[in-house]
Amino acid sequence: xxxxxxxxxxxxxxxxDNDDKRAKDAPTKNVLTDLNIQIRAHExxxxxxxxxxxxxxxxxxxxxxxxxxxxxxxxxGEKITGAGKNRGVVFQEHALFPWLTVEQNxxxxxxxxxxxxxxxxxxxxxxxxxxxxxxYKDYYPDQLSGGMKQRVGIARAFANEAAILLMDEPxxxxxxxxxxxxxxxLLNIWEKSMTTIVFITHSIEEAVFLADRxxxxxxxxxxxxxxxxxxxxxxxxxxxxxxxxxxxxxxIEQQRNQEEA
Length: 261
Ligand SMILES: Nc1ncnc2c1ncn2[C@@H]1O[C@H](COP(=O)(O)OP(=O)(O)OP(=O)(O)O)[C@@H](O)[C@H]1O
Ligand SMILES: [Mg+2]
Known about the structure:
Helix 6 links the parallel strand 7 and strand 8. This protein has helices spanning 55-63, 102-106, 108-112, 117-130, 146-159, 176-192, 204-210, 239-260; strands at 5-16, 29-40, 44-48, 70-75, 78-79, 87-90, 164-168, 196-200, 213-217, 222-227. The N and C termini lie far apart (45 Å). Helix 4 (117-130) packs across helix 5 and helix 7 (204-210) packs across helix 8 (239-260). It is globular. With 261 residues, it is α/β, with parallel strands linked by helices. The chain has 2 domains: 5-86 and 162-260, Rossmann fold, CATH 3.40.50; 97-161, no CATH class. The protein is built from 8 helices and 10 strands. Magnesium ion binds next to helix 1.
């Protein structure tokens, strides 16, 4: 069954003014030029591309934190004009509320949404289990390691149960073991929900492991938009898996070489 379009990125343009005073004549930087992407409900899309190609810019536009120069992003047919409850965001670095415990941080969104005490408790339990932090529920952020804080940030974003999750390299600061655990848990949660996920990563393997579709961004537009035809749970040693990885690797390398030339 074809799912309906959830996110429709239409002719999107975004530039930044060059504010380097030493280089007055430097041109403004066009980051996104006529970007068009459609994402269906419950799709898991990973975005790859070399550093500086505009991945975080795209995510900030999707979150509604910044505005495009031209074009629009539609969610369920409605134009985004700012941040909204239907979109949850997970950044690489997550600012937690230092005066709240792990459990209170995770329960913050549901509380704001006026859920009952029992509902909040069960939501917190579910997502603390997801990130393996039940034992730390009464700890404060400054008593946690960086990776643990990051897991609280992820659990907090999930606890809002937003229809769309926007994730900007959420696992890149985690050690391998924790990252693999989080990837598996993320897929579990996603499969059980109707969440639509846009996930940015530097790791090509991570993208091929997670995504229904991988989008490679080039110089402001889409270099590749590839459906990953592999059953889950995916095996990183499967020759087909490695083929996808090599294909994306090649594309991004080409992009790097073009830039240097
Ligand atoms: N607020 C800003 N003002 C000026 N230039 C910016 C701003 N934010 C980003 N840029 C520039 O826009 C380009 C795209 O940045 P962006 O952060 O979207 O890249 P990215 O693909 O997320 O990179 P990375 O993989 O390193 O996170 C970069 O050249 C960056 O220097
Ligand atoms: Mg970025």
